[in-house]
Amino acid sequence: xxxxxxxxxxxxxxxxxxxxxxxxxxxxxxxxxxxxxxxxxxxxxxxxxxxxxxxxxxxxxxxxxxxxxxxxxxxxxxxxxxxxxxxxxxxxxxx
Length: 95
Fold this sequence. Notes:
single chain, mainly alpha
């Protein structure tokens, strides 16, 4: 009984949170990586140019068609995947 009481300790006064276990170089490295990702994703957004030099009427439009074949193939794939997923296992005993 006394040993189990020693294993369950409720004194958490010395624990100051997860920052105590992390050293400052690790924190700075994570901050640097986070800022780098934010800045690298902001570069393409800042590179967008809105000028009147490109006239939208000069750009030929693409032909639009219904993607019926793609929908049929996707539906068949989903049905096949569900059939394989819900197929009973061969290790299952039939009773």
